[in-house]
Amino acid sequence: MRLGELTTPALVVDATLLEHNLATMAAALPGERLRPHVKAHKCTALAARQRAHGHTGFTCATTVEAHGLARAGLGEDLLLANEVVDEARLGRLVRSGARVTVAVDSEETVAAAAAAGIEEVVVDVNVGLPRCGCAPGAAGSLAESARARGMAVRGVMGYEGHVVGLDDRARRVELVRVAMELLLEAHDAVGGELISAGGTGTYDINTAATEIQAGSYALMDSAYGKLSLPFVQALTVLATVVSVSPGWAVADCGAKALAMDHGNPTIEDAEVWFCSDEHLTFAPRGAVRVGERIRVVPAHVDPTVAYHEQIHVVDGDDVLESWPVDLRGW
Amino acid sequence: MRLGELTTPALVVDATLLEHNLATMAAALPGERLRPHVKAHKCTALAARQRAHGHTGFTCATTVEAHGLARAGLGEDLLLANEVVDEARLGRLVRSGARVTVAVDSEETVAAAAAAGIEEVVVDVNVGLPRCGCAPGAAGSLAESARARGMAVRGVMGYEGHVVGLDDRARRVELVRVAMELLLEAHDAVGGELISAGGTGTYDINTAATEIQAGSYALMDSAYGKLSLPFVQALTVLATVVSVSPGWAVADCGAKALAMDHGNPTIEDAEVWFCSDEHLTFAPRGAVRVGERIRVVPAHVDPTVAYHEQIHVVDGDDVLESWPVDLRGW
User: Fold this and answer.
1) A122 strand-pairing partners
2) How far apart are CA A287 and CA A7, in angstroms?
3) Backbone φ, ψ for residue B211 (5° rounding)
4) Could you tell me the residue ranges of all domains in chain A?
5) First CA to last CA across chain A, in angstroms?
6) How far apart are CA A280 and CA A242, in angstroms?
7) At the top level of CATH, which class does the domain B3-11+232-324 belong to?
8) Chain A (268-307) residues lying within 8 Å, Cβ to Cβ, of chain B
9) Comparing C-alpha atoms, which of B294, B249, B293, B291 is closest to residue B273?
10) Reported ipTM
11) Is the CB of residue B192 less than 8 Å from the CB of residue B154?
12) Best mutation site among B278, B301, B309 for testing chain A: the one with the most A CBs within 10 Å?
């Protein structure tokens, strides 16, 4: 299939640029030093590529992601880096046959994991982002509680989500240090081989963690694109210009094809005005014509991919493969 | 099934409140005076309810929406209120057997419709929103062009999208007047029985249009909730509290379950801090506990529904039906 035959809007990933990103990360964080987060792409075919680069474990945000990886034969060492109190869903994960380690940050989540038959947990620690995670001082007693229920505690995790997107590298360095002091304090009390943390924006800064949970590096987006990282924009949304007016044009991708939580997408040689449900209004710097194809760079890759059924892998004008985005939903 | 058995996050619509909205609109704009826009719910089961309230035509934003309505037996009079240059997709619509009228705003879209075998069009006119639509003065010659290619021109459409969301009703009234002057000028040149326009925020203001394209009124969202309309919030996202910290709590719905283009969602008795991919961090005014279910009101219903596979129709704690969101994708 040729690029021009794709129905728009369509997620398109450049095979060479994707390979560059995967290889660059695997060189920096080989094997188990990276636990790729699949929430960024929700695609087992892409996870298999990451596995081929030597990363044996994966990070998941949902039970559906973990299940899908297990079904795809990628369940060697899955970390469900999220709190789940639904024993039924956790129980199905246990029965998937994968090695699944679940994050816990409260007695309730410890109890749910134990009741579901989960055998391994990590204690999720709040390292500065007001989200999940227990206080560092509470980590030890949660670990005891988990062990008392017969579960192995593999260590701690703590995501410095308030740091990963900061433009200023010096500030990222400083705030990672502060965050990881908290995580190491918790780890002292908890023990275990895992100190899991980090993201694409701190992959080479966070040396305290034993493994980094980066995901966006594979496809990238314009938010991470501002950080002078060695990863390139491999993913774009292919769209068709459907209307041209004096001063602006409209493409057939909008807020149902591009997540808007990090702001507007970007287009080379154009100023993006706004997205409606199915339209992107932009001011091109040159001439555009109705029917022309354009490439749109999402501001935030994760919730953008979650709108699409497929990621098309392309080499120039050739569509090499079309990968199902098979880890969506809950 | 009981509400408590639903996997979260889940789209939940209150059957009584939905019925209130559908009946209120059908009383105000009976039969063909309303052409419900299905982009707001992407659900043929909900469209069938709208049909049962007497509305025989539907508005669509995508060919997939039009196809799905045709398959569901709701293809009596479909308006594809969007520009499409893909002859293959238009051709499939022609073969669906539905009555399909397509918006055109350029010679290119007229040519694509004609080449695909589309028999009826409306001329889409820019009435003030910088998006699709030709200049009012160009509408007549486009209609001539369409007729010269053998297509019937049913009239004009022009969406006052820059007006529908304005808080101040007096301003909505004034700007609808200005916008509809442009549309009526175009209609004078085009002719035809249709003057299609409007949305939920102007449904009772826009009396120039022969039919109103409102969609959000059925489910509603917090953006339209500010406009003192007679429609109530029928849709919420059901979520589970998965983590509680001193000062905030976290629910299992985030930017992959709630579109963020109109800002943060809202929760009764809580202040929403931010959404991450799979988390909503909020400060509850009272006590919450891990495992508790909460209801979250989306800021923008259309791209929120597009993230979900089902809409669950509930009466109190009973889940009456689960409707597939079967008009997603492209």
Assistant:
1) A103, A155
2) 23
3) -150, 150
4) 3-11+232-324, 16-218
5) 32
6) 10
7) mainly beta
8) 273, 275-279, 281, 289-291, 300, 302-303, 306-307
9) B249
10) 0.97
11) yes
12) B278
What CA–CA distance (Å, rounded) separates B122 from B230? 31
Q: Which of B242, B274, B310 is the best residue to mutate to test the A interface, defined by the most A CB atoms within 10 Å of its own CB?
A: B242
Do the domains B16-219 and B3-11+232-324 match in fold? no
Write out pLDDT tens, residues A252-289. 999 999 999 999 999 999 999 999 999 999 999 999 99
Residue B284: other Cβ atoms inside 10 A: 18
A289 neighbourhood in chain B, CB within 8 Å: 108
Any CB–CB contact under 8 A between A224 and chain B? no
Mutation target among B216, B243, B288, B300 for the A interface, most CBs of A within 10 A: B243
Chain B residues closer than 8 Å to A279 by CB: 82, 131-132
Q: How far is B240 from chain A (nearest CA, A)?
A: 8
Q: Chain A: residue nearest B247 by CA?
A: A130
**Nearest residue of B to residue A305, measured between CA atoms:** B256
What pLDDT, on a 0 to 100 scale, did the predictor assign at position A129? 96
CB B153 within 8 A of CB B190: yes
Amino acid at B243: S
| Contact (CB<8Å) A256/B303 | yes
Q: Say if domain B16-219 classifies as CATH 3.20.20.10.
A: yes
What are the pLDDT digits (tens) for B86-108? 999 999 999 999 999 999 999 99
> Could you report the per-residue pLDDT of A138-176, keeping only the tens digit for each?
999 999 999 999 999 999 999 999 999 999 999 999 999
- CATH-assigned architecture of domain A16-218: Alpha-Beta Barrel (3.20)
> How would you classify the pairing of strands B248-251 and B235-245?
antiparallel
Backbone phi and psi for residue A218, each to the nearest 5 degrees, phi listed first: -70, -45
> Over pLDDT 70: what percentage of chain A?
100
DSSP-derived secondary structure letter, B5: G
**Which residues of chain B make contact with A329, given a CB cutoff of 8 A?**
309
Instruction: Name the CA dihedral angle for B173, B179, B184, B185, rounded to a multiple of 10 degrees.
Output: 140
Position B52 confidence tier, pLDDT thresholds 50, 70, 90: very high
Q: Is the pTM of this model over 0.95?
A: yes
B202-230 pLDDT, tens per residue?
A: 999 999 999 999 999 999 999 999 999 99
